[in-house]
Amino acid sequence: MYQPQPQRRRRSFAPFIVAIILAGALIVGLKLFFGDGASPGGGDSGGDGTGQKLACGDGGTTLTVAASSEKAELLRKMANRYNGHEVDGRCVDVVVTSKPSGGAMQALARGWNTEQDGPKPDVWSPAGTGWITLLQQRTEGSDKAQVVGADNPSIATTPLVIAMPKPMAQALGWPGKKLGWSDILALANDPKGWAKYGHPEWGRFRLGKTNPNFSTAGLNATVGAYFAATGLSGDLSEKNITDRKTREFVQGVERSIVHYGDTTLTFLANLQHADDQGAAMSYISAVTVEEKSVWDYNQGNPSGDPKTLGKHATPKVPLVAIYPKEGTLFSDNPYAVLSWADDAKRAAAADFLKFLHGDEQQKEFASSAFRSADGKAGELITEKNGLNPKEPGTTLSVPMPNVLDKTLKSWAELRKPANVLIVMDTSGSMGADVAGTGKSKLDLAREAAINALPQFGPNDQVGLWMFSLKQDGDKDYLELSPMGKDNRKTLVSRLNGLIPNGGTGLYDTTLASYRHVMSHRQGDAINAVVFLTDGKNEDNNSISLNTLLSGLRKESGQETVRVFTIAYGSDADLDTLTKISQTTDAAAYDSRKAGSIDDVFTSVISNF
What is the mean pLDDT of residues 41-64? Predict the structure, then answer.
């Protein structure tokens, strides 16, 4: 999740009191004037730069824990209370870093690179055991094998659910009727859509589901759909994955997807935005999320960040949790000590685990709507909150490593295809050097786009535009490659040929790219624009922002083209780009921090 920060010390000695007071006032004043990047909330001890209280100094043991984002802030709070514990005569500090489960698995599989992946962890706590299973599969037979041991106990749990706006769930028979993936498939395949249940105004069934290569909810939902297709609750085999009927079932579910993504927050934030406008039922019919995320959303806090709880009103249309009747997987938040941790860190890791299993910490997990480490539902898991403490009736098990790996490969073949136009800013400011890289902003953006292209599959259509000012007569944009399949070599060649020049024709280009994809829409694909810019609109003869947003709006239930925007560099107009993405039910990505564009581009393409 998110972060706070550091502090200072004190001296006495009467002769220096006045000087110290003046110096202290000067320091505070300078911090307020220049800013030190700190967030409020630190204590009297030193900080680590993530808002944690460190107690030990140079002589202690520092244990670094890489945690999945939905629980990282909670673990930081717990670590702050823990820090200063003695283990085998040494003071221990625990530092928690936030790392998406899929990203951490990939970093561990290729060999952790601190420059690219952040601080090297001693303990890894992904959201679910499936990521450890995949890591074992990806590293089998290599020198990175056995990075994670066999014993990885849970610290908290939460089951995967299919979250639906309450009126939609009620139309299907909730809460009296057991529902699951087969009901989702039947509704997704019905040409009448919601009209079958007396609500033609809701249009067709739309499912939100994250990319299983990045997201635990997406991974568990994909596995759950394969289990539902086979009727099994355990011992899924490679033969089951390749069965024709199984593949047809899974493909049918995937074709109801509105788009994918690297995090469920994309869907929940968009749903909140739609709810604010009284249009909750027009965005998605259901989204696969963890149970705790239903509670978070219903508190008006879709991010689940404790710091933003209470800052937004609760939704007009709440979500309720459907526990698939075919069974579901738990995100069991395993606690894995990594092979390179030395004896002192292993002892510290064992002591911190014992602390996390303590009553006070388990109650704190429960106060954020997690279930306990052994799966017991806390007082927030109630029907009033749209949840059911008696569910799930059937718990599915994570498949064997080879089967799970086969599942992901099969999903890549069956997922909904994409019809995407990439639009790259080539204005003069993109030629600016990025400190410490020896490269320009355009160089790094070009590399990031090229690195992300392999995420597209053989059934995807991808095109490329460039834009600045007057690139094609009076048009600010120029087509470099039409949307097509198997054109990666052409795309790479065109990207490598980009040259920065001119101003930024943001508004005209956005509307033109949206209309272009709309005119080339494919009914069975995710139709989208990926729009990268480092600036603000500089075309004095262009349409206004209001005209642009008006042109991007759709009627309730109408199909649209989603514009995923990337605010690149410190001068990018993130506020405007966010409005553009929100208007098209997409997501805006913030790459204003130097060096983040590669990860951001990968995250954007995970929507397809």
Answer: 68
The answer to whether 324 and 227 are in contact (CB under 8 A) is: no
- One domain for residues 553 and 570: yes
457 and 421 part of one domain: yes
SS3 assignment for 483-551:
EECCCHHHHHHHHHCCCCCCCCCHHHHHHHHHHHHHHCCCCCCEEEEEEEECCCCCCCCCCCHHHHHHH
Residue 361 sits in the same domain as residue 399: no
Residue 19 has pLDDT above 80, yes or no: no
Q: What confidence category does residue 57 fall into, taking pLDDT thresholds of 50, 70 and 90?
A: confident
β-strand pairing of 85-87 with 588-591: unpaired
| Same domain? 115 vs 193 | no
Alpha-helix residue ranges (DSSP H) falling in 47-91: 69-82
Is the distance from CB of 572 to CB of 533 less than 8 angstroms?
yes
- Please indicate, yes or no, whether residues 195 and 308 belong to a single structural domain of this protein: yes
Do 58 and 169 share a domain, yes or no?
no
Q: How many domains does the chain have?
A: 3
CB 345 within 8 A of CB 122: yes
Question: 481 and 463 in contact (C-beta within 8 Å)?
Answer: yes
* Pairwise pLDDT comparison (120 vs 1), residue with the higher score: 120
Residue 472 lies in a domain: yes
Q: Check whether residue 192 and residue 327 sit in a common domain.
A: yes
For residue 8, the model assigns a pLDDT of 33
CA distance 598 to 467: 20
Provide the 8-state DSSP code for 574: H
For residue 533, list its beta bridge partners. 567
Q: Concatenate the DSSP letters of all residues of 223-280 into one string.
A: HHHHHHHHT-SS---HHHHH-HHHHHHHHHHHTTBS---S-THHHHHHHHHHHHTT-G
Cα–Cα distance, 121 to 246 (Å, whole number): 39
Please determine, for residue 154, whether its predicted confidence score (pLDDT) is greater than 50.
yes
Q: Kindly tell me if the per-residue pLDDT of 423 is higher than 90.
A: yes
Specify if 473 maps to a domain.
yes
- Structural domain containing residue 270: 158-332+387-410
Angle at 48 between CA 42 and CA 52, to 5 degrees: 40
Task: Give φ, ψ of 479 to 5 degrees.
Answer: -75, 125
Q: Which residue has the higher pLDDT, 314 or 30?
A: 314
The pLDDT, as a whole number, for residue 272 is 96
Kindly report the backbone phi and psi dihedral angles of residue 243, in degrees, each rounded to the nearest multiple of 5, phi listed first: -60, 135
Tens digits of per-residue pLDDT, 294-332?
A: 999 999 999 988 889 999 999 999 999 999 999 999 999
Whether 391 is in a domain gets the answer: yes
Q: Are residues 167 and 73 in the same domain?
A: no
168 within a domain of the structure (yes/no): yes
Q: What is the value of pTM for the model shown?
A: 0.86
Q: Which of 327, 234, 220 is nearest to 264 (CA)?
A: 220
